[in-house]
Amino acid sequence: MLMAPMGSRLLAILVSLAVALVASHAVLSPEVYWKTVLPNTPMPKVVTDLLHPELTEEKSTSVNVGKGGVNVNTGKPKPGGTSVNVGKGGVNVNTGKGKPRDGGTSVNVGGKGGGVSVGAGGKGKGKSVHVSVGKSPFDYNYAATETQLQEDPNVALFFLEKDLYPGKAMKLYFPQNRETATFIPRQVAEKIPFSSEKFPKILEQFSVKPGSEEAEIMRNTIQECEQPQIQGEDKYCASSLESMIDYSTSKLWRNVQAISTEVEKQTQMKEYTIEAGVKKTEGDKAVVCHKQNYAYAVFYCHESETTRAYMVPLKGADGTKVKAVAVCHTDTSKWNPKHLAFQVLKVKPGTVPVCHFLPQDHIVWVPK
């Protein structure tokens, strides 16, 4: 349980948020924001998976002020929508289906406990985050460790562009991130600290013990977001779906499509064959967003003008079909020479295009 002063500060933030929402009489849910900004862009599966069904089905917004305080609700009034409540029990911000242990995300201030608690994803008791600790293979500043080379399932996702042709067999594994943290509304995300400088406060606010596995996971994500961008790329960490939409459209305009890898059924490492129908997307410019491990959905996005994206149909030896998304980087001269891709493919920076398939929880934004 956290100290009362932290609870008071967050209480003040959320009360201000609720008052602002009441004053505006409207707040768009992430799903409605997508449809408003991108009415002609289908939502990829990874996005719908990170939005609760109640949010994706309901478009109404209600604002109620009464004896119990202030209530702002976007989505269904039942559990699963997005709500900000200020009343006798304190303040509650909830995004998700039911209790946090069911995969939702909630921030509670006040109430019987008097403290602050944040839960996100996962079914395990007492765990706000549950994933492995390690540097992302999709941040090109980092050198791969020996552990990554031996154990990271993403190793199999790297390949050379010359191998992208029908009939090519590859041994692949499309892991599904165990981190089930979902999107929270931008209005809430913008009020939560996200920086190394404020890391102790973040741990306190999220009730995470310093030095724990969860703390290191969160620290790694923040540090990756704060690392300098490599030459030729622009990077941004989106802490909400709305901010990811804004970043991507600022780079590519609104005539975009968002694509992600879709696996027919979850399987282990196996041999896949590239089928006919490999399709290159328009242009050589893309925004690629990688799901990070954090208490709520955070995406590490980077924009590059030296990237080619492909839709690649795959078929496994057991008949499993995959609609895979692959990106090929045509200029790797500024990458870390010890990056995972170079060690796996046995090539040097800046010599040949380096490609990789994307896991299921990543998104590629490309011009239509």
From TrEMBL:
Lineage of the organism: Eukaryota, Viridiplantae, Streptophyta, Embryophyta, Tracheophyta
PROSITE patterns xref list: BURP
InterPro entries: BURP (IPR044816), BURP_dom (IPR004873)
Residue ranges, annotated region (Disordered): 58-112
UniProt feature, compositional bias: Low complexity: 61-109
Domain of life: Eukaryota
Position of the signal peptide: 1-26
Keywords for this protein: Signal
Domain BURP: 158-368
Name of protein: BURP domain-containing protein
Pfam families in UniProt: BURP
